[in-house]
Design goal:
By secondary structure, the chain is mainly alpha-helical. The protein folds into two domains: 1-31; 33-124. The chain has helices spanning 4-21, 27-30, 39-56, 67-83, 92-124. α3 (39-56) packs parallel to α5 (92-124) and α4 (67-83) packs antiparallel against α5.
Length: 125
């Protein structure tokens, strides 16, 4: 088992080595409070996986989509997009991924709604 202090030591040494390699013109981004040295960068980067999964569902038939899952993505994406603008530091990168999560959820909900509407129309004829 690796001790947390050992992991911290490895992380600090890695960052110190990378600090020397980052070009001067990128130092502001590199050292930003929500930059690549922080969880405020890596959490949204990993969250893009939700957007990619949502885009992958665009080819899935509407009858196989989950209304609750799509609604959850739409609502949480909307809530967290707003939250990203009131936290310190303001994290526009996190806001952008949350906006895309919300948009993919809303789009999937519209596909489900249109499918259900067409099913009701077909049953009524």
């Amino acid at each position: 088992m690796v001790l947390p202090s050992t992991m911290l030591h490895i992380y600090r040494n890695l960052i110190a080595a990378l600090d020397r390699m980052v070009p001067a013109r990128l130092q502001n981004t590199w050292n930003h409070p929500a930059g690549p040295k922080t969880v405020f960068f890596w959490a949204p980067t990993c969250k893009w996986g939700l957007v990619i999964a949502g885009l992958g569902d665009l080819t899935r038939p509407a009858e196989k989509l989950s209304t609750s899952q799509s609604a959850a993505l739409a609502v949480t994406g909307t809530i967290w997009s707003r939250y990203c603008l009131v936290i310190t530091p303001i994290n526009y990168y996190l806001m952008s991924v949350n906006m895309f999560v919300a948009l993919t959820g809303m789009y999937q909900l519209s596909r489900i709604w249109n499918y259900n509407k067409k099913q009701k129309e077909a049953a009524g004829k």
